Sequence to fold (1212 residues):
Amino acid sequence: MAQLRVALAQVNTVVGDLEANADLVSGWAKRAAHRGAHLVAFPEMTLTGYPAEDLVLRRSFAQASRTAVDHLARRLADEGTGELAVIVGYLDTSRTPAPRLGRPAGEPQNAAAVLWRGEVVARYAKHHLPNYGVFDEFRYFVPGHDFPVVRLHGVDVALTICEDLWQDGGPVAVARAAEVGLLVCINGSPYERGKAFQRDELAARRAREAGAALAYVNLVGGQDELVFDGGSLVVDAAGRLLARAEQFTETLLTVDLDLPAARTAASAGPTVVAGTAVGTGTAVDAGDGTAMTVTRLMLTGEPVVAFDAQAPAVAQRLDSAAELYHALVTGTRDYVGKNGFTSVVLGLSGGIDSALVATIAVDALGANRVHTVAMPSVHSSTGSVDDAADLARRTGVTHTVTPIQPVVDSFHDALAAAGGLAGLAAENLQARVRGTLLMALSNAHGHLVLTTGNKSELATGFSTLYGDSAGGFAPIKDVPKTLVWELARWRNAHADRRGETPPIPEEIIVKPPSAELAPGQLDSDRLPDYTTLDAVLDDYVERDQGRTELITAGHSPETVERVIRLVDLAEYKRRQNPPGPKVTSKAFGRDRRLPITSHWREHPSG
Amino acid sequence: MAQLRVALAQVNTVVGDLEANADLVSGWAKRAAHRGAHLVAFPEMTLTGYPAEDLVLRRSFAQASRTAVDHLARRLADEGTGELAVIVGYLDTSRTPAPRLGRPAGEPQNAAAVLWRGEVVARYAKHHLPNYGVFDEFRYFVPGHDFPVVRLHGVDVALTICEDLWQDGGPVAVARAAEVGLLVCINGSPYERGKAFQRDELAARRAREAGAALAYVNLVGGQDELVFDGGSLVVDAAGRLLARAEQFTETLLTVDLDLPAARTAASAGPTVVAGTAVGTGTAVDAGDGTAMTVTRLMLTGEPVVAFDAQAPAVAQRLDSAAELYHALVTGTRDYVGKNGFTSVVLGLSGGIDSALVATIAVDALGANRVHTVAMPSVHSSTGSVDDAADLARRTGVTHTVTPIQPVVDSFHDALAAAGGLAGLAAENLQARVRGTLLMALSNAHGHLVLTTGNKSELATGFSTLYGDSAGGFAPIKDVPKTLVWELARWRNAHADRRGETPPIPEEIIVKPPSAELAPGQLDSDRLPDYTTLDAVLDDYVERDQGRTELITAGHSPETVERVIRLVDLAEYKRRQNPPGPKVTSKAFGRDRRLPITSHWREHPSG
Fold:
């Protein structure tokens, strides 16, 4: 056996900011070296940030990434961390290009590099590309078929990237054939409810399949709509959990491993010289219809001098509500910060949605950066106005009251000649006046507007286009209404446990939900009760069930008809962005897809 | 040689409306039969409409499509067109499923069926799946590897679908190996400036490669942001153009072909019986790293009785401006109509953009369905108000004038306590008041709001979020400003040529562009002149060039810096839809992508 101290740097990168991301690697590599680590691994696409979307297709960006990884290797050596093997993710381009229509231009690859003694000594390109859900990697990358194995202090170490673990065959199968001692997997695996548990199971299973210890490092932080939750972990070759990092925080997880020493037999075949890929490698059946080429590189053959292993940290996984709440806070904080805003503004109606959003904003940014506005109309109850003020007092946010009736009246006057407004048109007008007031405050003071709509509303179109749905970030847009209440109760209980004042007045949690756009209006006038609604939405939207399946699943036919109709008709509302005929090869949105949060600029030196 | 009369039904389908699309096939099949055709082909995904996006992943939808194609075969026989071979596109699911993570659930296929004598006698699944630009077909489909050849009146006929022609190898290579006489390609190929010419070249080249005549039928009409321009065509085995259909119109193109009779040798091997795939087929190297399985089916071996060939129609291609204008009219008409609207409303400022959009709307819908509103503020010039009224008179649209100043003032009053509004905040307010007025008219009268922003504005963020960018459809969102002028002049000249009143007052075309949101304001205060701007945008956006390449291409460094900065910072504006943390497996927009225009409902019988 041979010992290794392995460090996993669970960091928060910024898409497009190659310099800041390189600084991040430099800083955390020093900490890893200080802790005596022999190897430190960073998350997927460390240098470019992840996901970089269509930036990946820009030649100048790919070139800058390739240059950055070479510079970084030299910099680490200059800074005294050259003896530490550093694994970073970056954007590369295929070294064996096979350009044709349908392969992404420039043949980008989602790559990992091993940096050692001032050089990039090995490069690995992601083999399994995900192309479902939030992932479109067939659009952006060509797959890799090389499998470098680096011998570090007598241990054979190999690399994988994220989806490589989720699909059968490929590098995990090749790792077993190549008798690897440690498999490092670098990830940008976004948070989703219940997924952390799946990841643990997966890591254990793949470690057993590979017959190797598995070190899994995940990204942390928010990038546009994705939140990366971290939760990096290490399992041994039997799949036993050895160490786990906390979720939603930047941290360095170190673990001392006892790994099988590479057998001499394993380096038979091509000659092995330090830091250089040798020969043409050995083709190995990857068990997925492809072959991968194993190349072996000698960094250091001698095991490290025996040291006393330290007990690794095994963080508890957060419970479901805490995890979700942290994801929303993280997503909000990073969206605001990475886009250069320092403050937010939101409408505080006295209802549960805006109460929860205000609380999330305070936890993300601090109360002094959160501005709330009550914008009562003639339909607003006194209770609502008071409840909003109560929440503002409890949380310490800046709170103002701007009655909207004079503005609403001026619109009615302006449109009197055109027949005036009544019913839904009059209701929507109130929401749009509020949206316009918030956007004006945003323009005048530089606050980002937070919208307060939840997923149940978004699903059913129970909101006003360019009204309550207008703003810069929507913290709870993917949270169903029943979970909104659950989170509010969780947050209050959390405060209780810490001896703090619960931020959300109980009255806001227990009152029947109402948009207060017409006299005596309740949500239940137009929607099924939220428990029923959310259950149907879960089956229809999450599980893609059709009408027959929904009814078979036990939902009443009337509710099913009603919900399906609402959801299908609300598709245009969910866009907000009017479509238009595409006539060029790069119409915005449809076939040009860039991150909103991106620090990439076409620099003079680019 | 053997004769065949081939018909191409260039039709306008509706996504999700399986019944209406089947009716369309029935109706056009009758016309084809009436004209004596032996074969008629319909566009890609005829029965489901194209592109159906995430509907494809819904089991109930795939099942309904499979059922619909079987029903259609029987219906055509019942209606007396059973002797006509009918090729339709539809959504199928793989008959040899190999489910795994990363392949779309249910293994949908983009398929074509040959309907004959009441049955589906052959099925072909698209082999090359496009996954770039507007296409995401790796997300939706699994590729096909079967290559059925049907012998119809002594001619061997085979099928391809759209991308199959654009990529090398695959079914075109197999067609040559299988000695096919006629290759039918069914398409959903969206309009793009200059693409019709490319298609002609491609069809000629692939016909020569296949050594077979090629019949290319394309979809026509608008579907959300895509416009299909038709332009169906037939080339002979030497690549010579024989027939071409007009663009942007539903039509039946018929052509009499003299084709090589299938050689007896070709049917050697597996026994051939009428209407049945025989044996296991023959594996043929497709030249693209895959093999396809050729199966041969005998429909009718006897050539048709010799008939006098008619001279086919060869429509002229439209010139570039006419083609673009027709695309915008088609896209607007179908978006409005397919979404169930009968009228539109738009703000008419007296500027060139709203003038062009009004003209497009009138050409798409008729003047009586187009409502325009002038919404002058204190910054609006008298000229602008008069020019808008002049355009309304020329085109015959309903025109009203609603001054916005009282409403703007009421907002200023409401925000006085919060410090008031000035500068950009005050400018944006005016645009949002106008947006709110138009949305109120939409809600009150059921008009769809047309926005009037052009691509140059959208690119540089020269517009107001939830102001002028608020609405239901954006006819010129992908048209750069310089082309807006070109189209206005073209439309006026077109009227001149037909002895009609040019719709757009010359004054509107020649005046310096201004948003009129501040005293004496001109676009040139904030943007480079549009000729310069559009040239940089073309290189930066369309060609994905970086800063260095842009400067090398001859653009001034100052302009490049300025434009890049504007474009990069406007990314959030182009969304309009605030992002929010994704926490479920099907967050709207990010990983649930449905067409807006869709007539699919989860029917009781579904």
Notes: The longest strand of chain B covers residues 2-10. Residues 266-278 of chain B have pLDDT under 50 and may be disordered. Chain B has 18 helices and 20 strands.
